[in-house]
Amino acid sequence: MKGSRIELGDVTPHNIKQLKRLNQVIFPVSYNDKFYKDVLEVGELAKLGTKMLNHVLNICEKDGTFDNIYLHVQISNESAIDFYRKFGFEIIETKKNYYKRIEPADAHVLQKNLKVPSGQNADAQKTDN
């Protein structure tokens, strides 16, 4: 399949079952029916992803006990890497053969530091990003 190009369009009621099947095959987690209903209501996965990530970041900020957030992204998923970088995540490591059923199998580990480094105030850290 080298050299092939796949383009994905908008999620609609006509193709939501295909998205559900893709997620079942590709991802190691299962999403409930409410997730797919929300995808249709939002209309765009990026908007839902932003909403979900902001929710998690807000919970962590309010809790105050989290130092970092980590996540894995397939090394070829440049749009996801760019998305997370906009939220302050940085690539800190690459894990070989992280995925078992997709190519490339390697994943970047991304980290977002939630604690202000000593000697800096919160405003200074925000302007540095």
From TrEMBL:
Domain N-acetyltransferase: start-end pairs: 48-115
Record-level GO cellular component terms: NatA complex; nucleus
Subcellular location: Cytoplasm; Nucleus
Pfam families: Acetyltransf_1
Keyword Protease: no
Keywords for the protein's UniProt record, in alphabetical order: Acyltransferase, Cytoplasm, Nucleus, Transferase
Broad EC category: transferase
Any Gene Ontology biological process: mitotic sister chromatid cohesion
Molecular function GO labels: protein N-terminal-methionine acetyltransferase activity
Chemical reaction(s) catalysed: N-terminal L-methionyl-L-lysyl-[protein] + acetyl-CoA = N-terminal N(alpha)-acetyl-L-methionyl-L-lysyl-[protein] + CoA + H(+); N-terminal L-methionyl-L-phenylalanyl-[protein] + acetyl-CoA = N-terminal N(alpha)-acetyl-L-methionyl-L-phenylalanyl-[protein] + CoA + H(+); N-terminal L-methionyl-L-leucyl-[protein] + acetyl-CoA = N-terminal N(alpha)-acetyl-L-methionyl-L-leucyl-[protein] + CoA + H(+); N-terminal L-methionyl-L-seryl-[protein] + acetyl-CoA = N-terminal N(alpha)-acetyl-L-methionyl-L-seryl-[protein] + CoA + H(+)
Entry superkingdom: Eukaryota
Protein known as: N-alpha-acetyltransferase 50
Lineage: Eukaryota, Metazoa, Chordata, Craniata, Vertebrata
